[in-house]
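2024-03-11 09:14:02 DEBUG pipeline.ingest accepted 1 chain
2024-03-11 09:14:02 DEBUG pipeline.ingest length=413
2024-03-11 09:14:03 DEBUG pipeline.predict start
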Amino acid sequence: MRAELMHTVEALDSLILFRQKPDSLLRRLMATEEAVRVAAQGELVALAVENGWQGDLWRCCIARELVSSENPFSLAWERHSGGQDTLEALALADMKLFFELLNAPLEGGVWPLLRDFRHESRHTADCASFLAFSGELAAANSPEGLLDRLTAFYQTRGVGLLGMGQVFRARRTGNGAELVPVEDRPPVRLADLVGYRQQKDLLIRNTEAFLRGKGSNNVLLYGDAGTGKSTSIQALVNEYADQGLRLIELYKEQYDLIPDILRQVKGRNYRFLLFLDDLSFEENETSYKYLKAVMEGGAEAPPENVRICATSNRRHLVREVWSDRGDVEHNGDIHRSDTVEEKLSLASRFGLQIFYRPHLRGIPADRLRTFGKGGDGPPAGTTPGRSRHVAGPQRQPFRTDGPAVRGPAGALN
């Protein structure tokens, strides 16, 4: 088998769009050195276990190379702008090689086991679309058929890391920000969060408008700890991931990475929420100014496929002290200083502000399913409350005597 594939190994260097790095897994699986091949086979098994792959791992490896390659052709089809042009001709030339690889007679050693891999994994359901695509590759009877299946995948599922993942965290590198998928996350849905009907309705309407490319806002969820603010955001992504919604969680010390993250996601066929959990600033912190600049835009406007979504225990986000109130006019009138106005203006950059009252503290549905059975009431210390919507312009004060949900006047109300 090794001799038969030598020409194919060398042909990897002839790929134009789907180029293989010198240390790519595909190249190492086809290496002439046995030690390199065996190590690569072990890596392939580890990938299968980690991702829940089943069946023919050789085909899964090729499918992974195809769906993860971010090149001009794949990105064009992700944006639904691909067509019969030179890029397609180049892609078809590459597909001839991959078609040959798919039909290569991998035999000997452990390959019979790897081509019929079985392992129980809780991740198998998460990669169902990938496994379905891998199975479709076997049904392609020509390079043209392979290309048709690949472009269909790009259009429906996307390309690369952002296409296969749904929730990401940022990692600082020497070159900026690297997005890392979050594999284990709660499968919570909005229906699991009892109460807060109006709050959830506003989130849904804003999110659906964002996904349609209509008018939508940056969102601030504020209220006491444990009221379900972060859970609501996690549930949004679970509800709308199949429609292209993605979430990128950032910590306060990572706000300087936002410009690089925006560069990476600009123009992609997804909608991104930059999630800032527990957002607040102390009086001596100035990073809030950086966040304001990002939200307002500078010489370059923020990408239209990105919105900021934050949670906070504070409505005004930045702690205010009496020393900030130092401006006294000569005419005797007392005015808030520029410092106060600058700090308080951060919250105003969130066009949709939603208050979470601690009446049920976001208790999941499975803890309340006994309501109404045998006359049982809610758990001790909790009282189901009614949400009231406080409408009006941004400057209208919030009511503190009951739950309230508020958005900008005339928008999403």
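2024-03-11 09:14:41 DEBUG pipeline.report Residues 321-325, 327-336, 367-413 have pLDDT under 50 and may be disordered.
2024-03-11 09:14:41 DEBUG pipeline.predict end
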